[in-house]
């Protein structure tokens, strides 16, 4: 292997075009300002498709929230493997906290839910409570 001349090294050439008459403004701590076209692109984005559940974005989001919390509770109950780990590890305290959060949501949104949201939330809480009871019984008496 031939040795290169120590004076030859990595050379960087700035090829950005800049008007030399305008001084550089801003500092390294300030984030660059978005070009005005970025706002126009945001406004031009198509709206997400309507969900078959519910009918409007608010209905979809509330049911989606219930289902997201329910999925997390199933993982905490050991009923589903945790993504990335591949093996189900029960965590009864986390499961109980998630079920309590769903119950709190039921109380705080009373009178503001659609009949479909009432049904989904009620069924989800009931199912998770039964699974929690079964898990705690199994942990208390592993042979039974």
Summarize the helices and strands and which ones pair or pack.
Elements: H1 36-44, H2 57-76, H3 92-108, H4 115-140
Question: Main attributes?
Answer:
144 residues; mainly alpha; 0% strand
Account of the protein in words:
There is one protein chain. The protein has 144 residues and is mostly helical. It has a domain of 84 residues. It is 50% helix and 0% strand. The longest helix has 26 residues.
Quickly describe the structure:
This protein is mainly α and 144 residues long. 50% of the residues lie in helices and 0% in strands.
**Overall mean confidence score, pLDDT:** 76
Continuous helix count: 4
Kindly, what is the distance between the CA atoms of the first and last residues, rounded to a whole number of angstroms?
73 Å
* Order of helix and strand elements from N to C terminus: HHHH
Can you tell me the residue ranges where pLDDT is under 50 for at least 5 consecutive residues? 38-42, 44-54
According to DSSP, the number of beta strands is 0
| Oligomer description | single chain
Secondary structure class reads: mainly alpha
